[in-house]
Amino acid sequence: MLELAILGFLRDQPLHGYDLRTRVAALMGHVRPVADGTLYPAIKRMAAAGWLLRNHEPGLVAAPRRMLYLTVEGRQELERRLREPGELDISDENRWFTLLAFLRHLDEPKEQAAVLRRRLAFLEEPTSFFYEDGRPMAAEEFADPFRQGLLTIAHATSEAELAWLRATIDSLEPLEPPGPHPERP
């Protein structure tokens, strides 16, 4: 997900390392802190793969800084990752949010909708954090107020996301009238 975030932010605009680190940390840092020892080796690997360029440019008031630019190959890699996310990218909430942050970079609404439909299908499957005899348990089945809270919050979040997914998919794939359109005179 770190590489996806780097590609996505650089697709938005060229950045220097500190700005990139700040943006990645704001998006992902609450889940996994973004250390220089993680970010800069990833940047080096991605530059070696041809996905980004590093250029030294004069700083505004200080020493020169290294600006990062997305290459054509980097843009293609970003689009591939957005178009073909792995199952974990769809099912893991934190990975999903990172993917969702950059999904606008797929130019085709049908491709965006296809990714959203995968998340929708995942969320429509009955699930719980707790099971009894292979059956997902609901919040009201617990006397424990903390488990009730966990399940109540998770259910409300899922319902909100389901509503958003359905509405967004509908907006990306409007219904077309059936049959051919007659020519106008």
Quick tags:
185 residues; mainly alpha; Arc Repressor Mutant, subunit A; three-stranded antiparallel β-sheet; 8 helices; 10% strand
SSE map:
Elements (H helix, E strand, L loop, with lengths): L1 H11 L2 E2 H12 L7 H13 L3 E6 L7 E6 L1 H12 L3 H5 L1 H10 L6 H16 L6 E2 L2 E2 L8 H28 L13
Antiparallel strand pairs: 1-3, 2-3, 4-5
Helix pairs in contact: 1-2, 1-4, 1-6, 7-8
Overall description:
This protein has 185 residues and is mainly alpha-helical. Helix content is 58%, strand content 10%. The strands form 2 sheets. Strands 1-3-2 form a 3-stranded antiparallel β-sheet. The radius of gyration is 21 Å and the shape is globular. The mean pLDDT is 88.
Major β-sheet, in short? 3 strands, antiparallel
Rg (C-alpha, Å):
21 Å
Mean pLDDT: 88
CATH superfamily of the largest domain: Winged helix-like DNA-binding domain superfamily/Winged helix DNA-binding domain
Number of helices: 8
| CATH fold-level assignment of the largest domain | Arc Repressor Mutant, subunit A
Number of strands: 5
Spatial strand arrangement across the major sheet: 1-3-2
